[in-house]
Amino acid sequence: MTRLARPLALLITAVVICAGAAFLLWPADEATTLTGRSDQHTVQLKLKELTTGPVEFELAVTDGSTTQFDAITLEPGMPGMGHATTPLTAQRAADGHYRGHGELFAMPGTWELTVRLGADTITITASVKS
Predict the structure, then answer these.
(1) pLDDT tens by residue, 6-25
(2) Are β-strands 97-103 and 109-117 bridged in parallel, bridged antiparallel, or unpaired?
(3) Angle 90-113-49 (CA atoms, 0-180°, nearest 5)?
(4) What are phi and psi of 65, to 5 degrees?
(5) Which residue, among 73, 58, 76, has the nearest Cα to 125 in the 3D structure?
(6) I want to staple 59 with a disulfide (CB 3.0 to 4.6 A). Which of 28, 53, 98, 119 is the partner?
(7) Of 80, 72, 78, 86, which is closest to residue 44 (Cα–Cα)?
């Protein structure tokens, strides 16, 4: 039994070292940022990933003034299929930053998000994976 103990211990040690290295070197998930612009505002929509189902999202709004909105509405639509989903509201979290949660994309494909900032409207296009 001792003849097998040492090779087995070395094998287990090598597996643990490889697993640890893979964990440390594996690329970190980076958030996706989509940008849209109008004459008045620039909007950056940040999502963990472009996928179907419920997501957490953040909007950053910049412009030449200090305009703040209580909330911003996102209206997802899929023009190529004639689909639209329920609009979502992002609430103000800090100056120029808004957060929301919900299903932006019901299925994979090309979507358009209409962002409503008071009287201003910005459209952002997104290619969504499953």
Answers:
(1) 766 666 665 556 555 444 44
(2) unpaired
(3) 75
(4) -125, -170
(5) 76
(6) 98
(7) 72
Tokens of 79: 């023009």
Parallel, antiparallel, or unpaired for β 41-47 and 54-63? antiparallel
Domains, the chain, with CATH or none: 29-128 (2.60.40.1930)
Q: Measure CA 113 to chain center.
A: 13
Q: Is-contact 84 78, C-beta < 8 A? A: yes
Nearest Cα to 120, choosing from 34, 36, 35, 39?
A: 39
Question: If you count DSSP H runs as helices and E runs as strands, how many of each does the chain have, helices first?
Answer: 1, 9
Count of other CB atoms within 10 angstroms of residue 37: 13
Chain segment 77-109, per-residue pLDDT in tens: 999 999 899 999 999 998 889 999 999 999 999
Phi, psi of 21 (to 5 degrees): -65, -40
pTM of the model: 0.73
d(CA 94, CA 13): 49
Question: CB–CB of 21/13 below 8 Å?
Answer: no
